[in-house]
Amino acid sequence: MRVLVTGGAGFIGSAFVRLMLGEDRATRLVNLDKLTYAGNLENLTPVEADPRYRFVQGDICDTQLVLELLREEKPDAVVHFAAESHVDRSILGPGAFVETNVKGTFSLLEAARAVALPRFLHVSTDEVYGSIEEPHDADENYPLRASSPYSASKAASDLLALSYWTTFKLPVMVTRASNNYGPYQFPEKLIPLMISNALEGKPLPIYGDGMQVRDWLYVDDHCRAILAVLERGTPGEIYNVGGSRALPNREVVEKILDAVGQPHSLMTTVADRPGHDRRYAITTEKLERTTGWQARMPFEEGLAQTIAWYRSNPEWVARVRSGEYQSYYASNYGKRA
Ligand code: NAD
Ligand code: DAU
Q1: Pairing relation of β-strands 213-218 and 246-248?
Q2: Which position among 127, 215, 220, 288 bears the catalytic label?
Q3: Mean pLDDT, to the nearest integer, of 198-214?
Q4: What is the DSSP letter of 265?
Q5: Residue 335: per-residue pLDDT
Q6: Catalytic residue among 33, 126, 137, 277
């Protein structure tokens, strides 16, 4: 398969690129990435010399660039990861989320339509369903009740993408995954932030009571699900991808502290996230039934491997936390103490 990936220098996109090339699932893989603060070519060192691989630095909002790439490379599929992905940043400044997540997706869809692309996989999130009351789990028909500018921008892009199937018969599929974790995740998200702070004995900021529930999915399991949908999914369909491991944040952080050998007293309650979703819960039954996909990584094992990766890669952590990260950390956490 010839594939064009957007956002392949980010956390999940780079895991997908490494998987596709590492397991010989792509004969050609083009990675279009703007290299925002979250894009990091170090994540792609294992594939950078691979003759099947090409990196192009560029913005998905640049429809002309995307069109030229599609005409030149003639991919069988686009797998669209590129996004502004962090909820707290969308609260500090929603503009970039509308630009990249909504207008950027529109730009890609227009280019894909112009060349009659055979497959377009739009990578989305379970956050579009908003907070879910117990005992319900959201299936793919659950109403969209996005809470943050991030999730609203993803919901908008999901609807736009699906409309290109309904209206123009562009073969679009949408995946909606739960919270990912694993190596190379930017330490603004819960698990890598808590691991890196715990390794340095710094306070671990818990929003509110810390009893919000997230369903944890190992990044490689997510990438295998995307591959399964790419190969066996049906155009116009949505597929939830869950990890089947729902835990309150506090419990996740306690597991990290225990694994790192630090006291629970490092947990510090800080002001809650505005509009904070209490509980995410999805059913993955459709994906399992229609593609045969199953999550492989048990949470405790995935967490141990992730902690081991952060322990062995202090230079990577130091580089991504230098510069812009410091001002982000100050503006997000400074006011919360
Ligand atoms: P990330 O923030 O780690 O990476 C995003 C990548 O997109 C970066 O490489 C960045 O440089 C690139 N990018 C941003 N704006 C761009 C633009 N305008 N043009 C080209 N490239 C651009 O994100 P992630 O956590 O790897 O998430 C990837 C996708 O998966 C996103 O669409 C996100 O909504 C979705 N998702 C994430 C999670 C999660 O837990 N992280 C869960 C479900 C779905
Ligand atoms: O559900 C999928 C989504 O998961 C993805 O679409 C998003 O891209 C991804 O960022 C993630 O969103 P969350 O908001 O759930 O993830 P985050 O890691 O930011 O936070 C997880 C939980 O931890 C959430 O309840 C907020 C809490 N939290 C987070 C941070 C960064 C804290 O208590 N303290 C923190 O410092």
Answers
A1: antiparallel
A2: 127
A3: 98
A4: G
A5: 86
A6: 126
Does residue 104's CB lie within 6 angstroms of at least one atom of ligand 1?
yes
Confirm whether 72 is a catalytic residue: no
Cβ(129)–Cβ(181) below 8 Å: no
pLDDT tens-place string over residues 44-91: 999 999 999 999 999 999 999 999 999 999 999 999 999 999 999 999
pTM value is 0.99
pLDDT for 227-265, tens place per residue?
Answer: 999 999 999 999 999 998 999 999 999 999 999 999 999
Q: Which atom of ligand 1 is nearest to the CA of 82?
A: 7
Measured CA to CA in angstroms, residue 256 lies from 50, 186, 192, 300 at distances of: 36, 17, 10, 10
How does pLDDT run across 293-336, given as a tens digit for each residue? Answer: 999 999 999 999 999 999 999 999 999 999 899 999 999 999 89
CB 118 within 8 A of CB 171: yes
For residue 139, give the 3-state DSSP assignment. coil
Domain residue spans of the chain = 2-181+216-241
d(CA 39, CA 49): 18
For the domain 2-181+216-241, what is the CATH code?
Answer: 3.40.50.720
Tell me the Ramachandran region of residue 261: left when phi exceeds 0, alpha when psi lies from -120 to 50, beta otherwise.
Answer: left
Helices and strands (H, E) in the chain, number of each type = 13, 12
Over the stretch 265-283, which tens digit does the pLDDT of each residue have?
999 999 999 999 999 999 9
